[in-house]
Amino acid sequence: MIQVRNLHKYYGEQQLFKGIDLDVQKGEVVVLIGPSGSGKSTFLRCINGLEYFQEGEIHVDGIELHSIERVKPGRKDLEAIRSIRLKVGMVFQQFNLFPHMTVLGNIIEAPVKVLGLGKNPAVENALALLKRINLEGKVNCYPGELSGGEQQRVAIARALAMKPEAMLFDEPTSSLDPETVGEVLSVIKGLVDEGMTTLIATHEMGFAREAADRVVVFDKGDIVETGPPEEIFTSPKVERTKTFLGRILKI
To answer: Which residues contact 11 (CB under 8 A, 6 or more apart)?
Structure first.
């Protein structure tokens, strides 16, 4: 479903990625862990075309995205990015909801404007999604009237309204109060259980251990270790993984 080959990413003269590779199979759940600043979020943003990269290739369900510079993306590059975004939904650390639109307005905006879906079927789908995330009573609320956890669930519903084939989650609970983290993780777990191809960057180690098919450990722009969650959490092979898990799990 997703294939990353020889990915290089620079910020000026500072290099982040030095030729990393990763494959994600259809229906697979891959969780990215590692210290803050290790490249997890940037990696996800490269896949979705939000960050350009200087070397390498990304393939998403047969769509090729080649290395391009931000200053001169060509028409084919932009078409590839648009096609990938139609196939891959993304949920961010910050909710990025339109503050002047109701919950319903936020969810139907892209299906109507981008997909050309009629308003009635878009509303019908939005109401079904809100019921799915237990927010059917918030349909006419504005983002400012919702808790952080509720806003993030609406953001997930907005992404799902585009009927993506895969989902990227960039630290979806990092800006939430501890009491609302479980609400969001429960929604994501539901998607995972339904077989959605999923890439998640998170510091929620319990969730990673429970939900992942595979855990990928990032450090300083490199993938230092990858494997099944039980292997990574109980017997990591790389010292950097042991140090990171020891600090975050306090073991």
So the answer is: none
